[in-house]
Amino acid sequence: MQSQARSILDAAKHGPLQSLTDREMDVREQPMTIYPRPKRVRAWVRFGPEAVRVDAKLVRSSPLAGGIEFRAGDQTFQCGVWRNAVRLDGE
């Protein structure tokens, strides 16, 4: 887990965490599921041009995208990612 945190923090030096906008997630037209018990997932995220795969929690999703949350050290990150960037643990 420490190596993942280190990878995340190193990637964060290359730029801000990129996130889909509400428009890209089409929140006005697509149904959004909010998970009271977030699902554990693996997801690709980007800090500037740097991509890193993280262990995360899927807190909301639509047919197009998901909202995830992940930690590195004492920092919590949240972002929206395309649905195909996310895999349930065990997939």
Descriptive account of the structure:
- The chain has two helices and five strands, in the order ααβββββ.
- It has 91 residues and is an alpha+beta fold.
- Strand 3 (65-72) and strand 4 (75-82) form a beta hairpin.
- The relative contact order is 0.26.
- Residues 1-32 are annotated as: Disordered.
List keywords for this structure.
91 residues; alpha+beta; 5-stranded antiparallel β-sheet; 2 helices; 5 strands; globular
Q: What's the structural blueprint in terms of helices and strands?
A:
Elements: H1 2-12, H2 22-25, E1 33-47, E2 50-61, E3 65-72, E4 75-82, E5 86-88
Antiparallel strand pairs: 1-2, 1-5, 2-3, 3-4
Query: Numbering strands along the chain, what is their spatial order in the largest sheet?
Result: 4-3-2-1-5
Low-confidence stretches: none
Mean pLDDT: 92
Q: Please tell me what the overall shape is.
A: globular
- Count of DSSP E strands? 5
User: Which range best describes the helical content: under 10%, 10-25%, 25-40%, 40-55%, 55-70% or over 70%?
Assistant: 10-25%
Helix and strand run? HHEEEEE
Radius of gyration: 13 Å
Count of helical segments?
2
- Biggest sheet character: 5 strands, antiparallel
**Structural class per helix/strand content?**
alpha+beta
Quote the beta fraction. over 45%
For the record, give the distance between the C-alpha atoms at the N and C termini, rounded to a whole number. Answer: 19 Å
